[in-house]
Amino acid sequence: MHIKSLLVAGTAAVLTLTACTPVDEYSSNPNQRTKEGALTGAAIGAGLGILTGDGGKDKLDRAVVGAAIGGLAGGVIGHNLDRQAAELQAEINDSRIRIINEGNQLRVVMPEGLLFAVDSAAVMPSIQNDLYAVADNLNRYPNSRVEIIGHTDNTGSAAYNQDLSQRRAMAVSAVLRNAGVSGGRLVAYGRGEDVPVASNLTPEGRAQNRRVEILIIPTG
């Protein structure tokens, strides 16, 4: 029981440290998420090995094997995310589009002003090439599912904002699908004004809240 308690605590600590790593545009350390993925995978793998072992040496053997397998799997996912984020950053022309590597997924944040005119859900032609770049990247990395999420500020009614965010997410999804991304990988939905990332009390904050986010979530 003591070993199990220490293991659970240690694994939780690793996950906490990983989660606390600053999340920013892909620029500072291109191998950071690879290292974090390997560390987390090794901790979890070792934990499962100990918890499933029969006792004594068997637990130790399983811990070693579990750590190796978990570290390899976590490192592979982290490495792929590092590489995919770097390629996507290089391929997108507009520097206002943010690519954030969160360790277990990539988050592409596209401000509303780049994508749509005011109160419109028609994707502007000027952003099409960058959306095509996202589609090309997704097609090179097929082992992921993709969530396209629309967000608004709190100006106007909540019902209108929900509908607008939904239509905008669907419009971005349609561009990706038309560019060759399998529709089976894509899920589009709106969150309206429910998930602000800044204060709606200032014009600058409201501008940040009006956005579409593309989540790229590895599946294997």
Automatic annotation (TrEMBL):
PROSITE patterns: OMPA_1, OMPA_2, PROKAR_LIPOPROTEIN
Location relative to the cell: Cell outer membrane
SUPFAM superfamilies from the UniProt entry: OmpA-like
InterPro entries, per database record: Bact_OuterMem_StrucFunc (IPR050330), Gly-zipper_YMGG (IPR027367), OMP_bac (IPR006664), OmpA-like (IPR006665), OMPA-like_CS (IPR006690), OmpA-like_sf (IPR036737)
Domain called OmpA-like: residue spans: 103-220
Gene3D superfamilies linked to this entry: OmpA-like domain
Major localisation: membrane
Keyword Membrane found: yes
CDD domains noted in UniProt: OmpA_C-like
Key words, A-Z: Cell outer membrane, Membrane
Pfam families recorded: Gly-zipper_YMGG, OmpA
Protein name: OmpA family protein
